[in-house]
Amino acid sequence: MSEQRGNFSRVGFILAAAGSAVGLGNLWRFPYTVGNNGGGLFVLIYLLSVIIIAVPVLLAEITLGRHTGKNPVGAFNYIKPGSQWKLVGYMGVISGFMILSYYSVIAGWTVGYFVKAITGGFNGITSAGATASFTAFTSNWWLMIGLLAVFIFLTVYVISRGVSGGIEKYSRILMPVLLGILFLLLIRSLTLKGASKGVVFYLKPDIKALSPSLVIQAMGQAFFSLSLGMGTMITYGSYVSKKENLPSSAAWIAFFDTFIAIMAGFIIFPAIFSQGMSPDQGSGVMFNTLPVLFAKMPAGAIFGPLFFLLLAIAALTSTISILEVPVAYFIDEKKTHRKKTAIFVGLIAFLIGIPSALSQGAVGFLTDLPLFHIGFLDLMNHIWGNLSLSLGAFFIAIFVGHIWKSSNALNEIKSGCEKFTVYGVWSFAIKYIAPVLILLILFGIVL
Ligand code: TRP
């Protein structure tokens, strides 16, 4: 493998892949989507999607990546040279630009809120005050664009240093810190007065909430949270050593990611309900409610900044994995220089991100799009974060199961994992269960 591509060390891969998976998807997107979709039922369908559909796809992506040692476009081309399958890779590269663009907007908010928190901005704040403060924050167009720029700059900086120098080094330090802070917040939130109402909302499935849209969003959330469907895990897999046990890595990554998402719900919902607030406030839910929580709790002046720092860190280990997809594509296929490529891709994502940054109150037209009646960011999130990832995962499952064939994938898996006892189950899932369910759900046939 060339200097430009680099490699992960053994622990490094799990940390980096878990760092990719754990991010705003767990702490911002998951709670707000659960809140919008009525609570427990969404959580249940999300968990089923993770186990039945997403985990098999995760293993397929990592295996395909390691076998080919390539970016998504190169990986499809390597196995089926000259075929149209590389279009799935291109779709992943484009999704990378798109997801990075709006993801970095929210990531920028976490930096802004970290600064607010550390400068005492939450002291004595009420729920009305927090909402007003969030509205003023997202309406400030130059601040929105500035924070987006800051976050993309940070991402480009890490990526330009390469896989082991950049991605791995940061994940190694940041992941354990993140877990520690989450545990503190969990204890704090669950011991609040009235916390149990939030727990009930979060855990009790309400069958009346069932709709095709809920199921699509729950499945989309499973892919989004595990960084699947656009080739992130193909790309990260391409840096993994042949000694690595892929099934056990995939299981750990999925467990860790899902654990943190579930934990985030236990932090957010008790906090929302103990304040008598409503859970379905959309993408600002976390930013509207947590400041009040921090203002009212002992040592909130410490927990507040810690929480937003944690979020910004988790977001960074995710944005670097999103940016790495287009960067690896250009390096492999177009033989470009890593640093210049990272700057180029970052710049484009920044420009695409501007309408998203201005869509939360700064510009009326973008905040409430004609026809759609949602904001530009929410539209991007639905198209790229739910639909495109689901389609991508569908094609990856078909490709690995039927074109490359799961028996060939097994040979790759066997390197580093002598006995893959659940091979039969995985093979059936990747060939039939995952693709069929994804299609049925996308077309709204499965309720
Ligand atoms: N999974 C990350 C999160 O939960 C976001 C992410 C990183 C992602 N890479 C991705 C989402 C690739 C979709 C596709 O925050």
Distance between the termini: 46 Å
What is the arithmetic mean of pLDDT?
A: 91
Element-by-element helix/strand order: HHHHHHHHHHHHHHHHHH
CATH class annotation: Mainly Alpha
Query: Which ligands does the model contain, each kind named once?
Result: tryptophan
Percent of residues in beta strands? under 5%
CATH names the topology as Amino acid/polyamine transporter I
| Protein structure class | mainly alpha
Low-pLDDT parts are none
Radius of gyration: 21 Å
Overall 3D form: globular
CATH architecture: Up-down Bundle
Structural notes for this entry:
With 447 residues, this protein is an all-alpha fold. The chain has one domain: Amino acid/polyamine transporter I, CATH 1.20.1740. Helices cover 77% and strands 0% of the residues. It has 18 helices and no strands. It has helices at residues 10-21, 24-36, 40-68, 72-79, 86-118, 127-139, 141-160, 163-190, 195-203, 212-225, 232-237, 246-274, 285-296, 300-334, 338-357, 364-367, 376-414, 423-442. The chain is globular and about 60 Å long. The structure holds tryptophan. The site of tryptophan has 16 residues, from helix 1, helix 2, helix 10 and helix 14.
SSE map:
Blueprint: H1 10-21, H2 24-36, H3 40-68, H4 72-79, H5 86-118, H6 127-139, H7 141-160, H8 163-190, H9 195-203, H10 212-225, H11 232-237, H12 246-274, H13 285-296, H14 300-334, H15 338-357, H16 364-367, H17 376-414, H18 423-442
Helix pairs in contact: 1-8, 1-12, 1-14, 2-10, 2-12, 3-4, 3-9, 3-10, 3-12, 3-17, 3-18, 4-5, 5-7, 5-14, 5-15, 5-17, 6-13, 7-14, 7-15, 8-12, 8-14, 9-12, 10-17, 13-14, 14-15, 17-18
